[in-house]
Amino acid sequence: MQTEPMQTIKKVLNSSVVLAIDENGVELVVLGKGIGYGRKPGETVVPDDANQVFVSLPEGDQRNLVELLAQIPAEFVELTRAIVALAETDGLELDPHIYLTLTDHLNFAVERQRKGLTTVNRLAWEVRTIYPRQYAVGVRAVALLRDRLDIELPDEEAANVAFHLVNADAGNGGVDGVPVDAARVVQLVSQVATIVTHSTGVQLHNDDLHGARFVAHLQYFARRFFDGKLATSEDDFLFTSLSARYPAAITAAERVRVLVAQEYGEHLPNEEIAFLALHIARVLSD
Length: 286
Known about the structure:
By secondary structure, the chain is α+β, with helices and mostly antiparallel strands. It has 3 domains: 1-57, Transcription Regulation, Sacy, Chain A, CATH 2.30.24; 72-172, PTS-regulatory domain, PRD (Orthogonal Bundle); 176-285, PRD domain (PTS-regulatory domain, PRD, Orthogonal Bundle). Helices cover 58% and strands 9% of the residues. It has helices spanning 59-71, 74-89, 98-114, 124-130, 132-149, 157-168, 182-200, 209-227, 236-245, 247-264, 270-285; strands spanning 7-14, 17-22, 27-32, 44-45, 52-55. Strand 2 (17-22) and strand 3 (27-32) form a beta hairpin. The model is unreliable at 174-178 (pLDDT under 50).
C-alpha cells in the first residue's frame, strides 16, 4: 500500500501557514486552515488535498513569501486560498506567486480602507471589459472580504484583484513564456481609447456593445504589442485606401502611432494603423 509523502514542520508562521521540508529536503510553504495551530517544529504534516495548498517557489521568492506570511494575519491567507480556489474552479491556472502578491494586496487594501485612505482604480471599466472572468472572481473576492472581515471596499477593488489574477495566470504567456503585465495592457488600451474619444468625439460606454467590441480589439492589439507579435508589413494599399475613405479614422489611428512612439519607443507599421483605423471607422459608423 502506497503511503502519503510526509512533510516535517520547520517553522510555524501562523495558524494557517507553516514552513515544511519534504522527504527530499525541499522546502515548501504549506497553507491550510488551522494547520499551524498548536504545532511545533519537527512534527509532521500529512498532505490533505481538501484543506491544504503546497507552494514551492525559487529560493528568493520563498524567503519573501515566508517573511510576508509571518507578518500578515492568518485571515488574509485564508482569503487568498478561497479566492484562488474560486479562480481555479473557473478554469484559471495560477502561478504560485499569487499567494505572495494577492495576500499582500488584500492586507494592504483593508489597511488603507480602515484608515480612510480610499483609492479609485480609474481603469476598472477596461479591466471588466478586457478580463471578464478575472473581474468576476474579483467581485466575489470583494464579497468575501465584506462577509469575513465586515468591511466595505469600493467596487473598483474587484479590478485590483483581477489585475493580480491576470498577472498570475499561467496561460497569460508573453514572449518566451514571460507573462504580460495586465496593468500595462489595460493602460495602453485606456490610452488608445482616450485618443479615439478625443479625436472622434465618440464616447465608449461600458454597456455599449460597439464600445465593448472596440475595446476587445484594443485588448488583442495591446497583447500582441507587448508580446512582440505585431504585423510588420509596410504595405500601403489598405492604408492608402482607408486614408481616402475614412480620413477621420486614419487621423485618430495616426495619433495612436504618435503616442506609441513617444510613450513606448516603438513604431507601429502601416498595416497595424490600417487595422486600427478599420475598427475606429466601424465605431464611427455604428
